[in-house]
Amino acid sequence: MRGQPLRAAVVGHPISHSQSPSIHGHWLEQSGIAGRYGLLDFEPEHFEREIRALVEQGYQGVNVTVPFKEAALALADEADAIARWIGAANTLVFSDGRISARNTDAYGFWENLHPGLSDGVPDCAVVLGAGGAARAVLVALQDQGVGRIWLANRTLSRAQGLAAELAQGAQIEALDWNAAEDLLDQEAMPLIINTSSRGMKGENPIICGLAAQGPSTVVNDIVYNPLQTALLETAAARGCRIVDGLGMLLHQARPAFQAFFGARVEVDPGLRQKVERNMGLV
Ligand SMILES: NC(=O)c1ccc[n+]([C@@H]2O[C@H](COP(=O)([O-])OP(=O)(O)OC[C@H]3O[C@@H](n4cnc5c(N)ncnc54)[C@H](OP(=O)(O)O)[C@@H]3O)[C@@H](O)[C@H]2O)c1
User: Measured from the CB, is residue 248 less than 6 Å from ligand 1?
Assistant: First the structure.
């Protein structure tokens, strides 16, 4: 494949909404690397065959999104410890015909959040939502040393299952949504994270009082469309420090870019503005 530009892509179904080509395109242009980053929509039944075809074609790797993250981990020849802990991969790197799985969502979540944690890593946190994104958040929090996590979900059994599956180092207690709202009205928490799709454009907003929260609480909503969710507005009105979710999307792409194209890159204001404009967020 000598002489060909380095190639990578994002793979999903559907995929047309993905910002990954714009993010990687920004860094390719900035770094002057002669690479290409595309967008591939695979039929679910052909996922594995299509991925193996990309390996044959000399791609450096792919980012993987819904609904392929578990299948990506399953087909890889090896996987990093975080991907195995999360149980899903968002990045496949191809080298010498082998497929290596990684998960950079936990990294992206923490890179976005930690500058907002001026009091250091908190000893406990409340996580709302127990879907796919919560997996990376729960792993990142435990990996950073958060020792106690309340995990709230509309479907309590799903939170209970995730707590049992992912707890390694932290005590994770499952709650139903109403119990979590009561907890947040009664007890000051250092960190609250929404990973549920509530608050996303077209979904019901999270309307809750956060009565016990104040300036020592950091509230992060990983929903990024809209950027300012009702949860973040309530938190700001209570004096909490708030962190929106767009930085998670941008930061998770950095290790993938380095793996595909060989250069370290940063999230700069120009990139954020570009993605905000593309998505109509400003
Ligand atoms: N910032 C980023 O980079 C980033 C990355 C990944 C995801 N996200 C965002 O995170 C959100 C969740 O994504 P996901 O992949 O985890 O989705 P998912 O796997 O479909 O999980 C959805 C979660 O939201 C809960 N939920 C949905 N509707 C609800 C409602 N009306 N009331 C209460 N809970 C509700 C579900 O609860 P049940 O279990 O009860 O159904 C579940 O916990 C999305 O908005 C997505 O855009 C952001």
Answer: yes
66 CB neighbour count, 10 Å cutoff? 12
Catalytic residue, chosen from 69, 102, 254, 272, is: 69
16: which residues sit within 8 A by CB, 6+ positions away?
39, 41
Tens digits of residue pLDDT in 176-227: 999 999 999 999 999 999 999 999 999 999 999 999 999 999 999 999 999 9
147-157 pLDDT, tens digit each: 999 999 999 99
Mean of all residue pLDDT scores within the chain: 97
Q: What angle separates helix 20-31 from helix 269-278, to the nearest 10 degrees?
A: 150
Helix/strand/coil for 11: strand
Question: Separation of 30 CA from ligand 1 center, angstroms?
Answer: 33
The domains located in the chain, with CATH, are 6-103+250-278 (3.40.50.10860), 107-244 (3.40.50.720)
- Tokens at residue 219, please? 């509230």
* 69 classed as catalytic: yes
CA dist 101 and 52 (Å) reads 14
Task: Provide the phi-psi class of 61: left if phi over 0, else alpha when psi is between -120 and 50, else beta.
Answer: left
- The reported pLDDT for the residue numbered 91 is 98
Q: Give me the half-sphere count of Cα atoms (radius 13 Å) on the Cβ side of residue 102.
A: 21
Residue 153 CA, ligand 1 centroid: distance in Å: 10
